[in-house]
Amino acid sequence: MSEEEEDIILSELDDEELVQQMFDDLYDGLKEEIEEGVNILLERGWQPYDVLTKALVGGMTIVGADFRDGILFVPEVLLAANAMKGGMFILKPLLAETGAPRVGKMVIGTVKGDIHDIGKNLVSMMMEGAGFEVVDLGINNPVENYLEALESEEPDILGMSALLTTTMPYMKVVIDTMVEQGIRDDYIVLVGGAPLNEEFGKAIGADAYCRDAAVAVETAKEFVSRKHNQLAG
Ligand code: B1M
C-alpha cells in the first residue's frame, strides 16, 4: 500500500485537519466517517451547533458548488446528503437538549414538487432545540397538506421550505389559499430556502424570510412573543 492509500485515522487529526477531512468525506458520501468525525468533535468539546454549521453545512456548501458546476451529479449528491443526515442524527438530541420551555408550535414542510429536506430538517432541529414543538410534514407538500395540518395541529407558525426556483412560487399558492379561506392572519408564516430572499418573502405575503436555521429560530421567537403580547394587550 502506498502512503497516500493508507487509512487516515480521524482521531489523530487536529481540529482543522479533521474538519477538512470531513469536507472530503461528505463530498465522497462516507456516512460512517462523517458520524465518526461528528463524535470526535463532540468528544473534543465542540458545541453541537458548531459541528453542524462548521463541519456539516460547510461541507455541503462545497458539494452544492460542484453540483451547480456539473462536477457532481444527483447520485453523488444523494450520498453526500445521506452522510450529512447521519451526522445530523447524532446532533439532533443534543441540539434539542437545551431544556428550554415550550415557546410555541410550528408546522413545517417542503413545498409541492420539491424533495430537498436537509435545510428543513435543520430548521426543525434548531426550533426544537429552542423549545418549539415541531410538526414536520416532510417533502412535496400540496396546499391541502398544509391546510389540514394547520387545522388539526393549531400551530402558531407555518414554515415552508423550497430549494428550487421552480417550486418557490408554490409558497404563494399556499398563502393565497389561506387568504381565500380567511385564515391567513391566524398564523405566522415563515419561509426559507437557498433561492429565496427577503423581497420574495414580502412579495408572496409571508411574515418573514429566514436566511438560515438560526435566523428562523430568532424570527420565530420574536413573532411568537409579539403575538402573545398582542393577545395579552
Ligand atoms: Co438539488 N438542487 N436538485 N438535490 N441540491 C440545488 C437546490 C441546486 C441549487 C444545485 C445547483 O445547481 N447548484 C439546484 C437548484 C437550481 C435552481 O432551482 N435554480 C438543484 C437542482 C437543479 C436539483 C434537481 C432538479 C437536479 C436534477 O434532478 N437534475 C433535483 C430536484 C429534485 C426535486 O426536488 N424535485 C435535485 C435533487 C437533489 C438531491 C435529491 C440529489 C439532493 C437532496 C437530498 C435531500 O435534501 N434529502 C440535492 C441537494 C443536496 C442539493 C444541494 C447540493 C444542497 C441542498 C442542501 O441540503 N443544502 C443544493 C445546492 C445548494 O443549495 N447550494 C441543490 C444544505 C442546507 C443546510 O441548506 O437547504 O439552503 P438549505 O437550508 C438552509 C436555509 O436555506 C434555510 O435554513 C437552512 C439551514 O440553515 N432554510 C429555511 C431552508 N428551508 C427553510 C425553511 C424555513 C426557514 C429557513 O422555514 C421557516
UniProtKB/TrEMBL annotation:
Keywords in alphabetical order: Cobalt, Metal-binding, Methyltransferase, Transferase
Annotated B12-binding N-terminal domain residues: 9-103
CC terms in the record's Gene Ontology section: cytosol
Single annotated GO MF: methionine synthase activity
Family annotation (SMART domains): B12-binding_2
Domain B12-binding: 103-233
Entry-linked InterPro entries: Cbl-bd_cap, Cobalamin-bd, Cobalamin-bd_sf, Met_Synthase/Corrinoid, Meth_synthase_dom
GO biological process assignments: homocysteine metabolic process; methylation; tetrahydrofolate metabolic process
Entry's family note: Belongs to the methylamine corrinoid protein family.
PANTHER family cross-referenced by the UniProt entry: METHIONINE SYNTHASE
Protein name, entry field: 5-methyltetrahydrofolate--homocysteine methyltransferase
Organism: Shimia abyssi
